[in-house]
Amino acid sequence: MSTTYNPYHNAQTQFDGVAKLLNLDSGMSEFLRQPMKELHFTIPVKMDDGSTKTFNAFRMKHNTARGPAKGGIRFHPHENADTVRALAMWMTWKCATVDIPLGGGKGGIICDPPSLSKTELEKLCRGYIRQIWNQIGHEMDIPAPDVGSNPQCMLWMMDEYETITGAHYPGVITGKPVGMGGSLGRTEATGYGCIYVLKDLLRILETPAASTTASLQGFGNVAEYAARMYTELGGKVIAVSCWNQADKTAYTFKKSDGCDIPQLVSIKDQYGSIDKDKAFALGYEVLPGDAWLSQDVDILMPCALENQITPDVFPNISSKVKIIVEGANGPTTPDCDVLIKERGIIMLPDFLANAGGVTCSYFEQVQNNMNYYWGKEEVLEKLEYAMTKAFRGVYELAQERNVYMRDAAYIIAINRVADAVKLRGWA
Prior knowledge:
Strand order of the largest sheet: 9-8-7-6-10-11-12
Number of strands: 12
Distance between the termini: 42 Å
Shape: globular
Strand content: 15-25%
Number of helices: 14
Helix content: 40-55%
Radius of gyration: 21 Å
Order of helices and strands: HHEEEHEHEHHEHEEHHEEEHEHHHH
């Protein structure tokens, strides 16, 4: 029987383990293992058919000792408070790991975006801001897009905030369209960030990317751009797994001689769903959704949702796998970390590997506040520098203390946040 995992409990379990390593006092531990503030609210939306539908929504602030809260807003039919709590907590550690002056926050709306019309989606976005406008701002809490939301959603939200406040505040929300306060490079940032970290690891291991193969879960922005950069470096993506919106089922699309990433992009929709029939016609094997895990590859990249690599599925992972790059938030459960360590697989943990998105969001906010915008090449150079610096700090600490990479990242992040809390006199 498969185990049901609560992402918030996972996040707390991970934190508790490292808090013991650091000998954090009980007061500090209790403060850091839960959000500082939670908002739970409802959003009524007049639907196209004239009916009114009520949507439940959240905004959580885990910790703001190092700066304003930062975190995306997820639109998902199975969103819940504990998932948002966990993601807010992971955002705190993510910002601290890459050493940007922000804290952790997250938001969510329980909804199914593909089932909403454009008008209904706009009303939902504006309704979300009407409920929290006095709790956000570039000096308080800066939302961004996440699963199920996009730059257009962020622009509607920014516009609603500016309508309410009567002034221009482009830095209130990041992930906006380029030309409307968005940053060049933001679309690619999370996926590219994963590969910047992987590239530096392969350099240390003296392993050319061109000699490696990978299998990915997900095909939204994170997986797409990770796959693009990885293949540009010479790596070969053997399989891609993603949810198919048409028949509500996940499939794995496989080509043993390497997937053509631009070709797959040409047959996917805005939600990262690949057209199964078109993929088959192009020569891809269409396998069950979980087949991505069992491929004989060097690298696994879970870039979809949390709780995907568990003890139940771990035996299916090929003995050839040497590296896991967590493009998603919380894709590996704490009880599976033990098995990964035992097998000697190198883990590039989520709040290091996928921190490119929040780092570029920070760059966007800085550009908004300056009202001066950088070229794409400059943005990506700054991003690669930040990600590589963060990776080397984590890798060197892992080597020095002979600890798992996730634990090393946690040690760095928790120390930085705890120091800020102490300096403020909060604990």
